[in-house]
Design brief:
CATH topology: CBS-domain
Structural class: alpha+beta
Strand order of the largest sheet: 1-2
CATH superfamily: CBS-domain
Largest sheet: 2 strands, antiparallel
Radius of gyration: 18 Å
Helix content: 25-40%
Oligomer: single chain
CATH class: Alpha Beta
CATH architecture: Roll
């Protein structure tokens, strides 16, 4: 299955000069947790997440309206092409530990987005060409913590605490 068959094409984006308050507004209005960042020519130059925005506001001691997206965006863009196979996209997601990829044309201009959720829906219906196991394993790899929670291994589970 090709990316173009399941990607979302109506994608909100912003520029590197957008302030975080406006970027957060776009996330809210579009019910999403991630925005591609496009330059003046529409080329994807980075991404910003709701978490990036929250952490920047919490750590920079400045208002969201005073912080530009360029200060917090991830500049390394992992993207795919509309004619790529879904298997290629999920491999990139797994390797880069990302839940979404911008879909760009040959010039790097934003065409849409494909998310892990899009792939999971197509896999459930049997259309993606991937097994449920492949998709779930990829989702688990993406969700692995970089650092284990402090004390997590020391705390008994609720079930064993009741015994």
């Amino acid at each position: 299955m090709k990316i173009q068959n399941i990607m979302t094409t109506n994608v909100a984006s912003c520029s590197p000069d957008t302030n975080l308050a406006d970027a957060a507004g776009l996330l809210w209005e579009n019910d999403c947790g991630w925005l591609p960042i496009a330059d003046g020519e529409g080329k994807v130059v980075g991404v910003v997440t709701d978490r990036d925005i929250c952490m920047a506001v919490a750590t920079k001691n400045r208002l969201a309206s005073e912080i530009r997206v360029r200060e917090v965006m991830t500049g390394a863009v992992h993207a795919c092409h509309p004619t790529d196979d879904v298997k290629s996209a999920i491999k990139t997601m797994r390797n880069e530990k990302v839940l979404r990829l911008p879909v760009v044309n040959d010039e790097g201009r934003l065409q849409g987005v494909i998310s892990m959720n899009d792939i999971m829906i197509q896999t459930e219906s049997g259309k993606s060409g991937l097994s449920c196991e492949e998709v779930l394993n990829t989702r688990n790899v993406i969700g692995e913590r970089l650092f284990p929670r402090k004390g997590a291994e020391e705390q008994p589970s609720r079930r064993s605490a009741r015994a």
